[in-house]
Amino acid sequence: MTIGVEQLLALLAVAETGSVSEAALRLGRGQPAISERLHKLTQEIGEPLYLREGGGIKLTAVGRALIPDIRQLRATLQDIENLLVHQKSLQSGELRVASTSLIANYLLPHYLQSFQKQNPGINLYIKSGATYWEHINLSELDVFFFEGEMDIPHLPDSYEIQPWLTGEIIAVMPKTHPLASASTLSLEDVQPFPVVWREPSSGVRRTLEKAFRQNDIQPTHFIEVADVESVGAMVKAGLGIGFMTRTVFEQRSDWGLISQPITSSQMIWQSYMAIPNPARRSRALSVFLDLIDSSTPLDRVSSESAL
Question: How far from chain centre, in Å, is Cα 172?
Fold first, then answer.
C-alpha cells in the first residue's frame, strides 16, 4: 500500500469543505490534482470513500472512519513544521556544552550571557569537570572545551579541534609572603616554598610540571586541591604559592592576593574546542561559534595585555 500524506489531506479537505473545488482552494492546488489524489486513495483503500450527492460530496462509512486519524496526522505535521521554523529562527532548541570547570566558571559565562541575550529561547546544558568525561558521549554534545596538556576522550573523525583562548600562568600569594616584594620571580625562587596546585588532570598543573621538569626543579612539597577556587582559598590562608591564569586572577579580587609573573620560564595556558564538522553542526552551535569569532580581542583574551 502506497498511501501518501497529500492524498489523505485531500480527503480531509473535501470532508471539511464539502466539495472538491473548495478543497482545491484550501490546499492551493488545481481541482484536477485534488480529484487525482482522491482517485488514487480510493484505489489504495479498495472501496469508495465518498459519494457525490446533491452537488456536493458525502463521505462513506469508511471515509468517515479515516477522518479522526487524518486530523491527528495534520496536527502532527503542523507541530513538526512549527518546530522546524522555531529551530531555524532559534526561537527554540538547545546548546549542549562540556568543558573543564575552569573554563565553565571563568571563561564561558561571558559568551553564554551574550548568546542567551540574543537567543532567549535556546536552553543551555553545561557539563563541567574532568570526572564527567569518563562517561562523555560526544554525540550528545555541540561543543567540548578543554585545556592544553590534558588527556581528552577519543574524538570521532567527524570532529575537529580548534585553538581557543590563551593566557599567562602566574604565581599568586598573600601580600605578606616573603616573595611578595620580589622584583622578579623565577621557578627557582618558588622551589623552597609549598606549592598549591590543581589535580593532576588540570591543564595549568601539567603546564607547571612540564616547566619544573625542563628547569630540573622539584618543589619541596605541595598541596593538591580539586579546583581553582580551592587554590585561592588555600593561598589566602597562607598555605603556599598558587598558580592560575591571569584571566582567572583578575576576576577574583575578593581573594586579596597579589600576582607575580614567572620571568625565567613564561608559561602559556592554551585552551581548545572540539566541534563537529560544519555539516554536522546544529543551528544553535553555528550561531554560538559566530558569536565567539566576532568577539573583540579584549573580550576573547583579557590576559593578552600581560603576555
Answer: 32
